[in-house]
Write a structure and sequence with these properties.
The protein contains five helices and no strands. The protein has helices spanning 9-34, 39-44, 50-81, 86-110, 115-137. The chain is elongated and about 50 Å long. 30% of the residues are buried.
Length: 138
């Protein structure tokens, strides 16, 4: 039993939204872990000075890798979902996108003024999860 659910438009849409979410999280990784000390990046995150950016840098570096690992989880899940391990792949993709969505919810609850960042971080994972749910129920 390699295909427990039919390939549908909802499954394809879920994969596309999940891939977009992964790309967003890779971009966040680059900002937080690679380009953090640039003034333009500092402004994106509302960090006012070089000293503040340097103080926050270890946390941002670590957080960037969390975003990268979530993105890699989505991509690994999507790859497996196209193989004979489709159920495992979908489970991994769902777990990773759910983690992205929950992180966005934590962000907006803990820092309501960062609602735009939470929306950017969480909208595509939410759409992916809704589409995956439709595919599994359909």
């Amino acid at each position: 039993m390699t295909e427990p659910f039919a390939f549908t438009g909802a499954l394809l849409a879920g994969g596309v939204f999940a891939a977009i979410a992964a790309a967003i999280h890779v971009a966040i990784f680059v900002l937080e872990s690679v380009l953090w000390m640039r003034p333009s990046v500092r402004r994106i995150f509302g960090v006012r000075s070089d000293a503040d950016a340097a103080a926050i840098r270890p946390m941002a570096f670590n957080q960037g890798f969390y975003n990268l690992f979530l993105a890699l989880g989505v991509l690994a899940g999507l790859l497996l979902a196209t193989s004979s391990l489709a159920v495992a792949g979908l489970a991994i993709a769902v777990f990773a996108t759910l983690s992205m969505l929950l992180a966005a919810l934590v962000l907006v609850v803990s820092q309501p003024r960062l609602w735009r960042a939470a929306l950017i971080q969480g909208a595509t994972p939410l759409l992916a999860l809704l589409a995956f749910a439709l595919a599994m129920l359909g």
